[in-house]
Each structure stands twice: as C-alpha cells, then as structure tokens.
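Table S4 entry, TVA4 protein.
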Amino acid sequence: FLAAAVGRAQVQQEPLAETSEGTGINITCSHPNLRTTDFIDWYRQLPGQGPTFLAFGDKGIKEVPDLSGRLWVAA
C-alpha cells in the first residue's frame, strides 16, 4: 500500500507490508504536516503489478469498495 499527500510527499510509513489471503493487516501511515483539508490516497500494489487506486479520505473509517474489511484514515 502506498499513500501520499498531494504536493507535500513527506509520508512516513513502512516500505512493505505483506499478508496472506484471508488474513487481516494493519498499515500505519503518517504525515507530519497533515491538515484537516488534506486527503490521503491509498493504493495497493501486488507483486509484479502497478499500483491500483483503492480509496481516498481524510479522517474516520473509509469503506474500500470491492475489498473486504475497512480502511481507517486518522489525522
């Protein structure tokens, strides 16, 4: 998963997160200057493939279409 704040790419996150199918995963990503008007875009990149857009959001719980589970973005 990748995330970036537009125009201010100072995102702090682990470079890689892996899990097995059917197993949950927690991914932490932060930005030192995130404002309440900023949005974070979330992407999934599977091995050997390019990034695929998942969702965007600011705060709270964001449902991810076509995927099981939830994506939670907090600022």
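The radius of gyration is 12 Å.
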